[in-house]
Backbone:
């Protein structure tokens, strides 16, 4: 379900056959349609509110990159190893 949501929002709806077939193992056509509609509706709403600067917090993009902790090896971040 999350892979399909990613395809809808990040991939402009382009979904690999394998993802769609897996989705069909636990949802029928009606559930897939409803999920697709709701997910893309929220994605459209996000684009419109960003484009028109109508976001709830009414400020510039709040994402700020945070520096890694001192001594943390960024090339090995997946394992959480510190050197």
Residues:
């Amino acid at each position: 379900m999350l892979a399909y949501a990613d395809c809808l929002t990040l991939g402009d709806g382009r979904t690999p056959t394998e993802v769609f077939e897996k989705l069909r193992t636990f949802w029928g056509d009606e559930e897939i349609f409803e999920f697709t509609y709701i997910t893309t509706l929220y994605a459209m709403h996000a684009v419109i509110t960003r484009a028109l600067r109508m976001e709830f917090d009414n400020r510039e993009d709040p994402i700020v990159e945070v520096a890694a902790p001192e001594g943390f090896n960024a090339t090995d971040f997946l394992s959480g190893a510190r050197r």
